[in-house]
Design brief:
There is one protein chain. This protein is of the alpha+beta class. It is built from 6 helices and 17 strands. The chain folds into 2 domains: 7-280, Endonuclease/exonuclease/phosphatase (Deoxyribonuclease I, Chain A, 4-Layer Sandwich), CATH 3.60.10; 293-348, no CATH class. Helix 4 (302-319) packs antiparallel against helix 5 (325-343).
């Protein structure tokens, strides 16, 4: 049975609502919408899609996360409450032996980098074929991580992941403001489009009118985030509740006109927060990369290789005694690689999905599901 999105907002009234589910838009393992059924969805992307996920520990959810990536192919994932530390490697976010196009770039900040306390943590996951780099110079002493992602217009957008723990001190927002101030004051970032998402745990704000609710909890914090968004010209676009009727997971942007549609979707695993899925009008650039070249030894000119190495051996035996071990090794390696490059043809290795449970029957069922949506 296919579940529908929890909630849905179309920011583009002139287009039919069904178009939201076309192309790269989301569908999850509990299913959140429509998408191409397999990894071919990475080939054609004309709408950059962002998922905002509160993991409540990514440690035990790598299968669920992989299912989301397999069926949704989001361009960017903004994650909070990762609960990771130095003992948890980036490779553990997802299962082993997955296709190369699903091995997302991971930029993260663990809570233990700030204080000796478990929990928390944020991450930005970017599709491997999107040019991206983390922005360490924008870090401050709060749970914030920034990454720069190139778009098809050869411009860069700034993606931020933020987490504010419930009952935090006001310093958590002060440090976020310091990070935004760095962006504003640095010419290399000043004109970039900003998308800042995460779980802010400030559910007592009426975002449509821009004020705290009557009797709001953490009113000082609510006032602070409203003041910051106004000062730095950031608009919060999500008006859909993500947890128990409250709007906790937010997305601020400097360019709200680029937001086409957004929905909330069922949580990942047993997390309490719905996933926020946002479709933009940005067309992402795709780096078309091969996985590399390997020597095709069946088409090697072995006689030429033997002659080259035989000639080298005479010179090597005559001069090696006067050289260091390191010099001898370097000379041998360079000579060997040189003759291999000249005398052995190469072939390109292409990525092949290695998901044993993704059979042709299952792929047909996924295609049938997406067609019905």
């Amino acid at each position: 049975m296919i579940e529908t999105p929890s909630s849905y907002v179309d920011s583009s009234e002139s287009e039919p609502s069904s178009s939201y589910l076309e192309g790269s838009q989301v569908a999850s393992f509990t299913s959140i919408g429509k998408n191409s059924s397999n990894t071919s969805s990475h080939k054609v992307k004309d709408k950059l899609t962002i998922l905002i996920i509160n993991f409540q520990s990514v440690r035990n959810k790598r299968t669920e996360l992989h299912n989301i990536i397999s069926s949704c192919a989001p361009d960017i994932i903004i994650g909070s409450e990762t609960h990771t530390d130095n003992d948890f490697h980036n490779a553990e976010f997802l299962p082993p032996n997955i296709p190369a196009e699903q091995k997302y770039q991971i930029f993260r900040k663990d809570r233990k980098e700030l204080i000796n306390k478990s929990g928390g943590g944020v991450t930005i996951m970017v599709r491997p074929d999107l040019p991206a780099e983390e922005c360490l110079d924008l870090d401050t002493t709060c749970e914030i991580k920034w990454a720069k992602v190139r778009t098809s217009s050869n411009e860069a957008i700034l993606i931020g992941a933020y987490y504010r723990e419930p009952k935090s001190k006001i310093e958590a927002l002060d440090e976020l403001e310091k990070s935004l101030s760095k962006i504003q004051n640095d010419p290399s970032y000043r004109n970039m489009k900003i998308f800042l998402g995460g779980d802010f745990n400030l559910g007592d704000i009426e975002w449509e009118v821009g004020r705290p609710m009557v009797g709001a909890r953490d009113k000082v914090h609510c006032d602070k985030i409203l003041q910051m968004s106004s000062y730095y010209s950031l608009e919060q676009i999500n008006n859909l509740p993500t947890r128990q009727g409250r709007i906790l997971d937010l997305l601020f942007t400097s360019h709200p006109s680029l937001i086409q549609r957004y929905i909330t979707c069922p949580p990942i695993g047993l997390s309490d927060d719905d996933i926020l899925s946002v479709q933009t009008n940005i067309k992402p650039v795709i780096n078309k990369k091969t996985l590399g070249k390997v020597f095709n030894y069946k088409k090697a000119e072995w006689n030429n290789i033997r002659k080259d190495m035989s000639d080298f051996s005479e010179e090597y035996l005559r001069t090696s005694i006067s050289k260091t071990v390191e010099d001898n090794w370097t000379t041998f390696k360079q000579t060997l690689f040189s003759t291999m490059d000249k005398n052995i043809q190469k072939k390109v290795i292409k990525g092949k999905p290695d998901i044993p449970w993704m059979t042709h029957k299952i792929k047909r069922m996924i295609r049938k599901k997406t067609e019905t949506l």
